[in-house]
Amino acid sequence: MNRERKIIRGIGTSSGVAIGRAYVLERGKIPVPKRNIKPEAHDREINRLRTAIKDAQEELKSIKDRLDEEIRKHAFIIDTHLLILQDDFLINSVIDVIRNENVNAEWALDMVVSRILTTLEKVEDPYLRERAQDIEYVYKRLMRIMVKKVKLDIDSLHLSAKTIIVAHDLSPADTIHLNLKKISGFVTDIGGRTSHTSIVARALEIPAVVGTQVASSTVKNFERIIIDGDEGIAIVNPSEEDVKYYVRKQKLLKEKKNEHLRIAKLKPETKDGFKVKIGANIELIPEMEIVEKYGGEGIGLYRTEYLYLSRKAIPTEEDHFQVYKKLAERKSFSYVTIRTLDIGGDKFVSNLDLAKELNPAMGLRAIRLCIKETQLFKSQLKGILRASAYGPLKILIPMISGIDEVIKTKEIIRECMAELEERKISYNKDIEVGVMIEVPSSCMISEILAKEVDFFSIGTNDLIQYTLAIDRVNEYVSYLYEPLHPGVLRLIKNTIDAAHKEGIEVALCGEMSSEPLYIPVLLGLGIDELSMNPYSIPQAKSIIRKLDQDYCRDLANHILSMKSGREAERFLKGELKEVLKDDWILMDNRYDLLKGRI
């Protein structure tokens, strides 16, 4: 019987192609019984809750102990769930409901968690929304223990080889103790790029498509399925043509990976000897191993927002220190650039008691928030400074729009240094302090800023949006997002020239840095460092090693004379097709052909 071919679209969060049979992980809704109880039964229900918590902790610890060696380093995700089970706010809230509402433990737990999840659903920030998955996972484990007395243990599944797991929500704990010898990919209804599950999938290099909304209700057990983690699609009951195409693409990706692992160890140097630093953008400690594997010299951007968004309480100086110390001690990295807090007060789980803003993206965020909430800022800075005694850390300040913010920031850093000296705590007194160039005003005064800091890092994602006054995720204006727009390129050139005049280096850490089409132009403009997704590093090295710096300068000057970004892009595609050769052919096969047929 011919089954209907269906294409399910979602978010590709882990690169690669997987072809296999679907296993739909169905867990159904747990029936939650409600019982009215008398006050004398309160202690009994509270003890049932505490016993369930203890059993859940033992289950998770047992899972953690059984993890394969290759994924043991990702056990921090199980530790997150263990911490939720120890959360006094959660436990005490359930106990209060038991006592005040005279209801059983299951019903009280359901009431409390439902309120928390409802609150998190209204939060715009994806980090916070995805933390709800961790709370829901813990809730389900507790509820199954109390209601059904069964374990929630995915690794007991009897799966055949090349199985693709399809689920409404595949939790991080599920992901890290799957039998990787049999699982070739997964598809979920919910989730995004910043969820724990997606991060683990990338770390383990398992193709993944999340956020499909409909996969678990559309796909049936044992149906043939293809997932493309680059394009974010799943094809259910694919045609023979589909299978042939994706087998070919799978082979190309495997060849590319093998080639990239070879290239990863080579130097990022042009044919005429121009050297460029290549770093990586990361946000979690386990990602350091991926950076090493794919040839990153250092960490060009360590995002610290996860430290604030993954917990109820604001991180302490000690919390910061412990994380940054691990980064500093990684001997394989020649530098680690830590970006200070780059969100607004509206994103915190804890209450900073700040007024609601109509336009948070242009309001009290990043350095503006840190200067206002000085103690919050000092905790992070002192954590960085203390960790700098263990390795080559650098401080990067985001969203600088004027010199006064730089002067005030340096003053606060000096105060932190004085406090550490008073406590007789060592730190690197010569630690480099740089600023992110992501606001047009900072580009225009870059010659002034360059006299006050040790380096620049251009954040092109925000710079392009602020310069062109567009939101790149807005479907109505996203077509205006043009990295090669002459206004954008001139701001970048002005910034690089001003920095070099003062003898400081310039990094570029936006998505523009890993786009093959733009790398020759950036080299021609004189960029010193490119920082990107770790998986993009080998291809960037491959492209750099095919180029001459003189050629890149001429190319950049020619592009700067053009009237529009679209004109520049058309010219570059024609020009570089011959220069990049194999890299260009591979890009054509992976992207252009695919988009033309699906």
Main traits of this protein?
598 residues, alpha/beta, Glucose Oxidase, domain 1, Enzyme I, Chain A, domain 2, TIM Barrel, eight-stranded mixed sheet, eight-stranded parallel barrel, 13% strand, globular, disordered C terminus
User: How many helices in DSSP terms?
Assistant: 24
Structural class determined from secondary elements: alpha/beta
Using the alpha-carbon principal axes, give the shape: globular
Number of strands: 16
List the strand order in the largest sheet.
1-8-7-3-4-5-6-2
* Overall tally of structural domains: 3
**Named CATH topology of the largest domain:** TIM Barrel
Kindly provide the radius of gyration, computed on alpha-carbon positions and rounded to a whole number of angstroms.
26 Å
The parts where pLDDT drops under 50 for at least 5 residues are 588-598
CATH top level of the largest domain is: Alpha Beta
Beginning-to-end CA distance, first to last residue? 24 Å
Q: What fraction of residues sit in β-strands?
A: 5-15%
Which architecture of the largest domain per CATH? Alpha-Beta Barrel
Helicity level: 40-55%
- Which homologous superfamily in CATH is the superfamily of the largest domain? Phosphoenolpyruvate-binding domains
Question: Quaternary status of these chains?
Answer: single chain
Average pLDDT reading: 85
The profile of the biggest β sheet is: 8 strands, mixed
